[in-house]
Every structure is written in structure tokens, then in C-alpha cells.
Amino acid sequence: LSLLKGLLQVNVGDQGLHFNHGSSPGFPDAGVFFQSYFIQLSNQALQFCFGAQVSRFCPPRKSCYDWIGPPDKCSNLRPVHFYIPENESPLEQKLRELRQETQEWNQQFWANQNLTFRKEKEEFIHSRLKAKGLGLRAESGQKATLNAEEMADFYKEFLSKNFQKHMYYNRDWYKRNFAITYFMGKVALEKIWNKLRLKQKKTIN
Amino acid sequence: MAASPHTLSSRLLTGWVGGCVWYLERRAMQESPHKFMHLFRNINKQWITFQHFNFLKRMYVTQLNRSLNQQVKPKPEPVTSPFLEKISSGQAKAEVHELRPISPPSLPLSRKANEKELIELESASVIEASIDVGNATKEEKQWKEMKLHVDDLPGILARLSKIKLTALVVSTTSAGFALAPGPFDWPCFLLTLLGTGLASCAANSINQFFEVPFDSNMNRTKNRPLVRGQISPLLAVSFATCCALPGVALLTWGVNPLTGALGVFNIFLYTCCYTPLKRISIANTWVGAVVGAIPPVMGWTAATGCLDAGAFLLGGILYSWQFPHFNALSWGLREDYSRGGYCMMSVTHPALCRRVALRHCLALIGLSTAAPILDVTTWTFPVISLPINLYISYLGFRFYRDADRKSSRKLFFCSLWHLPLFLLLMLTCKQPPGGGSDKGEPQS
Fold first, then answer.
1. Hey, is the C-beta of A135 within 8 angstroms of any chain B C-beta?
2. Distance CA B268, CA B361 (A)
């Protein structure tokens, strides 16, 4: 278990709970908005989810493509292992770093969101069952649950509580998505341009 | 009498479109597993490296702890191929016991020799560890190369453009065209359908482009191509542009400018209004209903060249239909919507949700009565459509009163067959020419 903690502490330190390394192009306010809506994850939560998947995976040497993994258990997002070509241009590097950072940011948000949801749902169920005077387990021994109509109050409350958080997230997600796609376009054009130049050189020679 | 060729053509069309959709779906489903297996067979052969063994070593520690904490029962590995299984478990066992470095790339002979020695050293912890590492390598196998195979592209693009929904949209457009007065112009009809289909593909692709992390978190949408990384966002946007531009051009210059303008407006409404609004306010449902109402209006304007009362009636029918359809669907998705941050009536205003669904079921009865008044159909139509309208209203009332999953599902499934049947009945009761209807000039 100490090995596990050590491994994950390293991971957390590397990726960081704040992304203002200066490696986030065009997002100088990353740290600020992030702190404004980030709720502290418990150590336990972090141990289960955070980023361990990507750092563990190793693609075959021959492959020169990105690799995408199964959905993460907490965030439901699929981690991507980015391929670093030997002759990576500065533009390609910028794109890769942006994608990497966005992936981590997304992972943080959704892992946090889903865990908070699960936790608060449990608390809600416990409090309602207590109010009804029922135990946490039904006679059959299974976990007691509330029906959909009782849960509806919780869903409504959760949605309205997180509304502002979602507004910030949406705004930033749209910005990042556009930026990534824009840079992808630029990289593609750069590649085409280089290929054409190479062809021209060959025909001249 | 004049109604029958129209009915026949729209029936044929629905059948043809349905056939295409089925074919595309089957192809997509059949091709992927074969490519997957082939890919992994090739890759696994190259995986014997020192780096890989170290990674397995780390995986053993974390996986063991994770399995203890989460109380996951170690599942038996799926039998993908006996060859694959042997290699991976051999690697695992080699790692657990022989923590000395193994020089890359190991020859197959030495690997097999290692395997044999280790099999002799059986103990409970070894088995458990190898199962855990087996789980790890199983997870490893789920990693896929983000390489686009050209053969997969049609299936991927079909899913990106939500081809089934597009087919439904195109069929409502064809109904609008067929119900419009005037002689039936086949070339114009086909151009309209193609243009509308392309516009719908474009709009759906952009919608998926915007919603990747949200789609990942909902069960209904987690297998979409962008979520699974089967294509890049750049390709999705390029595809959308390549559909939108010819689609709108076809509608504007091949049919008439009004239809083209409606197409552009609808794409804008869906991608730039409805999609972001889903996360901001419950008003998104009303905007979405307008998005659904525009295609039959486009069909009508393609045939007649103008926006007259009949066009608005058809639009109104589709608009009203959206509410029982969507509100009933959203009733079962409340948990996912709440967690994902979607502002839907079913979550925030449940009573309103049910009231609106019922209200619009009743509105459908009103609209079907308005049809003969506006000379779109004969008076037979409200009479023969009354049974299905009453039935959906009854289900709407049950949903309003009971507010449970059972009634919502019944209402939703009813809406799925109610609409095609309703439109079909409308077609059969279409006002014949010379019945006093306004003849708009079909433009080309």
C-alpha cells in the first residue's frame, strides 16, 4: 500500500492540482478558474482514479500513432497516450501539450464530479431512509434504495448546486475544443506543405 | 386518386432509407471485431520488451491493491485466442517470479523455457497475482491505436452523422414535400432529400463534436465515434463542412433559395442554439422542437416555393410531436442528466415536463382538425386519425398522472409509431388538386 501511495503521489505531483506551469497556451487564467470551482478530492478518491492509467501504458515501439484506452472508472473519459515523433515541430509540440493538458483537466473535473455525485447520492439516500425510519438494508439483506420519484429531489438539487461550476466548465471546454481543432488543422496544413516542398525538391534534383 | 402516387413514393422511400440504414449498421458491427483481433495479434507479438516487464511489475502492485479495495472479483480472461492467452500469462508469470532483467527482444525459445520453469512454482499468491496482472494485460488489450482504417470510415461516419436520426428527418421532409399541393416533381424531390440529408449529417456531426466529454458520461451516448477516439475532432469538423456546403448549395441552387435558407437556419439553430442551451436552460426543449419542425416545412417550401399555411401546419404538427416524444424519453435519464449537468425539464421542473407532454398530445388532435380547414387534407383525416390521437393523449394523461418509468416508456414508444402512421394517414387523405387549394408554383 505504501508503494501504491508513493506511485500515486508522484503522479499527482507531476500532473499537479494547478495547471499554470506556463505550458498552457492561450489559457493564462487556467489556474484561477480551476481553483474557483474545484472541490478538494479526498485522498482515497485520488488513489482510485487519478491519471495512473495513462502513465502505466506503453505502446509498442513500432507504432507511430496515439493510443486510446478504455474509459476511466471515475471520469468515464478515455485516456490518450500521445505519440511523440522524432522530428516533432514546435507547432506539433504545442498541440500535443495542449491536448495533454486538456485531458488532465477533463479527467480532474469529471472524476471529481462523478465522485461527488456518488457521495452525495449516498448521503441523500441515508438521510431519507433515516427520516423514514428504515435501516440501510432491506430484509433481504440488499442495500435499500429509494424509488425514482424520491431520487428526483436529489437530482434537482444536485443540478442546481453545480450549475455555476458547469457554466465555467462549458465555457472552457468550448474554448479548448476549438483551440485543439484549430491547431490540428494548422499541423495538418504544415505537414501537407512540407510534403509538397519535399516533392518539389525531389523533382528539381 | 392523385394522392396514391405520392403515398407510394413516400412508402418506397421510407423502405429504401430503412434498408440503407440497416445495411450500414450491419457492416459497422461486422467489420470491427475482425480488424480488432487482427490488430492485436500483430501487436502482441512485439510486446516482449524490458520496459513492458517493468510496467507489468508496477501494475501487479497497484492492481492488487485496487482489487482489494474495490472488491472486484477477478474475472476469467475472455478466450480471444489460445495463442494470445498463453503469451500474456507467460509474460505475467515471468515477471512475478523472475525479477531479474530480461534482455530485449527475447527469443521465443527462451520465453517458452521460462514459462515452463515458472509453471512448476505454483502457489496461491502466484495465481492471484497472475490473475491480477492478467487483468492488467486485459486492460492493456483494450488500448487501441488511433489509426484510421479506410474500411471503417463509412461506419464511423454513419454513426457520427447519426444516420438513423437523419433518415427520420429526411422522411419527414419527404412527407412535407408529398403533402404540398401541385404536381409531384421527382428531380426536385430527390434533390431536396439529398440536400436535407446532408444538412442533417453536418448538424449532427457538429453536435457530437461539441459534446465529447458529456457523451462519455452518459450510457446512451458513450459509444459514439469521437468518444471512442475512432476519428479526430478535425476530421469530424471537416466532414461536417463537406456535408453542409454541398447540402446547402444543393438546396439553394438545386431547389430554391428559401429552402436553402431554412436549411442553414436549422443547422445554426441545432448546433449553435440547441446544443449549448442544453446545459444552460430548459428552454432548449422548445428550441429543439423547432429544429424538428423545420424539415417538413423545408419539404413543403421545396415543392411550392413559399411559406404558406400548410407549411406552418406541418411544422406545428412536428413541433407538437416533439414534446411527448422527448419528455417521455428524458424521464428515464434524469440521473444521467443531473450528473452531466444538462438542464432538462424532467430534472428541474418535473410537473411542467408532464404537463407540456400532455398539452401537446391534445394539440395534435387540434392540428389534425385544422388540416382540412387549411385545405391540406380532406375531412376524412381528422376522423381516421382520431383513434391514434386519442390513444397517445390517453398515454400522455397516464404519464401526467402516474409520473413513473412505466408510463413514460409507454408514451415514448407510442410516439415512435404514432408519427409515421399519422403522416401516412395525412398522405392518404391529401386534398386532391382542384379541391379549392392554393396552387403554389413548384420552383426548380
1. no
2. 28
